[in-house]
Design a protein that fits this description.
By secondary structure, the protein is α+β, with helices and mostly antiparallel strands. It has 3 domains: 2-44 and 256-309, no CATH class; 53-122 and 232-253, no CATH class; 135-229. Helices cover 23% and strands 31% of the residues. It has 7 helices and 18 strands. It has helices spanning 4-8, 12-16, 23-38, 83-86, 92-99, 270-285, 289-311, and strands at residues 2-3, 46-53, 57-59, 64-72, 75-77, 79-80, 115-122, 135-140, 149-156, 163-166, 169-172, 174-177, 189-197, 204-210, 215-222, 231-237, 245-253, 264-265. The strands form 6 sheets. Strands 2-17-4-5 form a 4-stranded antiparallel beta sheet, with no helix packed on it. The protein has a 4-stranded mixed beta sheet with strand order 3-16-7-6, with no helix packed on it. It has a 3-stranded antiparallel beta sheet with strand order 8-14-15, with no helix packed on it.
Length: 334
């Protein structure tokens, strides 16, 4: 793992041309890493994550951008997306499975066929409903973030958009100030549509708070660099809502901005980051800078590909099975 502090102490600082403590330095690093992550799947950006399914749904960690493959209880499960729900074409049996998955087909071992369906994004792990509304409480992991703001947007139990009085002005949402004594919304939400927060040093946690019972359950963890957090959300067809399932998934990580020295940078190749910062600065210079930028960008991608080749060699040991009396079949190219 590479941290922003390690980049600040590397030769990337010579390329950036600004003080490592200047916010512009972090901006260069964030722009470089974001662009590199958009340009391909690199070492440490495709990872295996594990978790549990509750109530037939799974909310993926905040840095998960795409779910590539899934195993549930050690069995492979096909992955689909929200397009399928709106498409009139395709395999009719699979469409029937999406509509009524329980006890359809008897696979595996007499159980329901399971399908993981991408169903959009949500700002919270657990979404409130009209039948189970809750207030929201926020806490800061780091006391340095006390005094910063978190705003929650959505609808109340009457279906009206939640508003609040801020300095004599009626505004959308409820703004809460992080403090040692955790604030919570006075209004109970039946739907949360969006959450915004200030840049923070540490994580901010959101809790579903039931005032009659005076207890809180974690429903969101927002990283310091996130200002508009949201999570990938999937429905798991073919599972029972009263059971918990183990899930293992191969996912591609999305970009999360860094700002504090201890923040983790998802791409750990310093040479690639350095070349990409050079590309960004070349484009900013104007004139013939685009040509130089393309060259630096190509160098960055080449270094990332070399890193992949070193970790996953293209030339593996070849095992040859000679089944034709010792004569190896081959193709002749003229």
């Amino acid at each position: 793992m590479l941290t922003l502090s390690q980049i600040q102490n590397s030769t990337v600082a010579n390329i950036a041309g600004v003080n490592v403590n200047d916010p512009q330095f972090a901006s260069y690093i964030n722009d470089a890493v974001r662009q590199l992550m958009d340009l391909g799947d690199w070492w440490a950006t495709v990872v295996d994550v594990k978790g549990c399914i509750y109530g037939g749904v799974v909310t993926w960690p905040t840095n998960v951008q795409t779910v590539l493959a899934v195993n549930i209880n050690h069995q492979h499960v096909p992955v689909t997306n929200f397009w399928y729900s709106f498409s009139p074409v395709g395999d009719s049996a699979f469409r029937e499975l999406i509509r009524n998955p329980i006890w359809f087909g008897g696979w595996p071992h007499g159980h329901a066929k399971r399908v993981v369906e991408f169903d959009g994004r949500t700002p919270l792990f657990a979404a409130p409903t009209a039948t189970n509304p809750f207030a929201i409480q926020v806490t800061a992991d780091n006391p340095a973030d006390y005094g910063k703001f978190v705003t929650v947007y959505g609808y109340d139990t009457s279906g009206l958009e939640v508003t609040s009085n801020q300095d004599g002005i009626i505004q959308r949402g409820i703004r809460m100030t992080l403090a040692a004594s955790a604030p919570n919304t006075v209004t109970a939400f039946s739907m949360v549509t969006h959450v915004t927060k200030d840049l923070t040093v540490g994580n901010v946690r959101a809790w579903q708070y039931f005032s009659p019972f005076n207890n809180a359950t974690l429903c969101g963890i927002f990283a310091g660099g996130e200002t508009s957090p949201e999570y990938l959300y999937s429905k798991i067809h073919g599972t029972r809502c009263d059971k918990t399932y183990d899930i293992s998934a191969l996912v591609k990580l999305g970009f999360v901005a860094v700002q504090n020295p201890s923040d983790i940078v998802p791409i750990g190749n310093l040479d690639a980051i350095k070349s990409m910062v050079q590309a960004i600065k070349a484009r900013e210079s104007g004139g013939d800078g685009d040509q130089a930028a393309d060259k630096y960008e190509t160098t960055a991608l080449r270094r990332l590909n070399m890193e992949l080749n070193n970790r996953f060699p293209l030339d593996q040991i070849k095992i040859q099975n000679e089944t034709f009396s010792g004569i190896t079949p081959h193709r002749r190219i003229f």
